[in-house]
Specification:
The protein has about 180 residues and is an alpha+beta fold. The chain has 4 helices and 8 strands. A hairpin with a 3-residue loop joins strand 2 and strand 3. About 20% of the residues are buried.
């Protein structure tokens, strides 16, 4: 824990990629796997996502990491823009993913897992007026743990329709898994 506290704020790059995180509460800057409700945090979900990149060679670019595995490709896209304005769309990054060299003529399935302050954290599930989160009954804590996950979408893709497009909001990341037959 002490190593993480000392190291993470001082390191801009971790394994060749820089992903910046902002928290709503500037006083709460701790990195933890579980929160006060004994629930998984953003860092837990990010760790699971990054585990997919630990066994195979990775390719890094501006706001993305790609690796090929046994069943397809994993692509991690991130938008660390932290400007907070009323014009949300001004800070949304649009990624165009061209898979022509990979898929040939076949149709494929792509899963998207979106992780941000609304998806993958209980802050997106619990009303902000509730302050005593430690005192939740165990049944409610269990229910929260079942629903607290990145937002998952499964999409088909046909290369004849053009590039696969992802619109990524500010302070978010998405892991795409391209499943090959």
């Amino acid at each position: 824990m002490h190593f993480s506290i000392d190291t993470v704020p001082n390191k801009k790059y971790l394994a060749g990629a820089s992903i910046n995180f902002n928290k709503n509460d500037p006083l709460d800057n701790s990195i933890s796997i579980f929160d006060e409700t004994e629930n998984k945090t953003l860092f837990f979900h990010l760790g699971i996502m990054l585990l997919n990149f630990s066994k195979y060679r990775c390719f890094y670019g501006e706001n993305y990491i790609i690796t090929k595995n046994m069943y397809g490709y994993n692509i991690l896209l991130y938008n660390s823009d932290n400007k907070i304005t009323d014009r949300y769309d001004d800070h949304t990054h649009v990624f165009y993913i061209d898979l022509d060299n990979v898929i040939g003529n076949q149709d494929i399935i792509i899963s998207e897992e979106l992780l941000n302050n609304e998806n993958g954290t209980i802050d997106g599930l619990i009303n902000t007026e509730i302050e005593k989160r430690k005192e939740f009954p165990n049944f409610l804590k269990y229910k929260l743990s079942q629903y607290n996950a990145p937002k998952l979408k499964i999409n088909p893709h046909n290369k004849n329709k053009g590039s696969y497009t992802v619109k990524l909001p500010p302070r978010s990341l998405v892991m795409l898994t391209v499943y090959l037959k």
